[in-house]
Amino acid sequence: MLRAIYPGSFDPVTYGHMDIIKRASAITDELIVGVLNNNAKMPLFSVEERVKMLKEVASSLTNVEIVPFDGLLVDFARQMNAAFIVRGLRAITDFEYELQMSQTNHKLEPKVETIFLTTNIEYSYLSSTTVKEIAAFGGDISQFVPEAVIRKLTEKMNLKGECD
Ligand code: ADP
Q1: Does the reported pTM lie above 0.70?
Q2: d(CA 142, ligand 1 centre) in Å
């Protein structure tokens, strides 16, 4: 039984993340998408909202589970009994950080390996940050995120607008 974890902020989930989730779930028996509950990153969406959106958009993938976590990633991997951590690599700019993280995690827990899936060229430019910026200015984000996320982002932006 090959179980892997795909951890991230997913604030919010994009088609780039979805592509990695689909491809990683096709090569594992079970894929756990770990949603980081880290308020220091000041996410736009709460961890509950991020988990809900992911559950909605990944509902057709029967071997994918969405689980929130906090604390050390290697502790979460141990707790979930996962042999692999999956990360996506978009560009050379991701590489330095990802290399450092995977080497550190390997030092902390040599039994857990990190594997990288390179981005589909179609999504190599795509990040949650860009999507939020476009949405904040009322731009069209339909090429970047699923319908369920558009609805949530629009709601959130309207709420923010009312508070500002
Ligand atoms: P984190 O805060 O952990 O970087 P993200 O939600 O930004 O969380 O990203 C989670 C993972 O998904 C990372 O491995 C990141 O490189 C990958 N990722 C993000 N966007 C894309 C994309 N467009 N294509 C492929 N992988 C991506």
Answers
A1: yes
A2: 19
Q: How many Å apart are CA 72 and CA 55, to the nearest integer?
A: 23
Element (H, E) at 115: strand 113-118
Residue type present at position 46: S
106 tagged catalytic: no
From first to last of its 164 residues, what are the pLDDT tens digits of the chain?
899 999 999 999 999 999 999 999 999 999 999 999 987 889 999 999 999 999 999 999 999 999 999 999 999 999 999 999 999 999 888 899 999 999 999 999 999 999 999 999 999 999 999 999 999 998 999 999 999 999 999 988 877 766 66
Close Cβ partners of 84 (under 8 Å, ≥ 6 residues apart) = 2, 3, 4, 5, 28, 112, 113, 114, 115
| Residue whose CA is at the smallest distance from ligand 1 atom 15 | 88
Helix H, strand E, coil C: the string for 92-105 is: HHHHHHHHHHHHHH
The response to whether residue 127 sits with its C-beta less than 6 Å from ligand 1 reads yes
Indicate which residue of 9, 50, 128, 132 is catalytic.
128
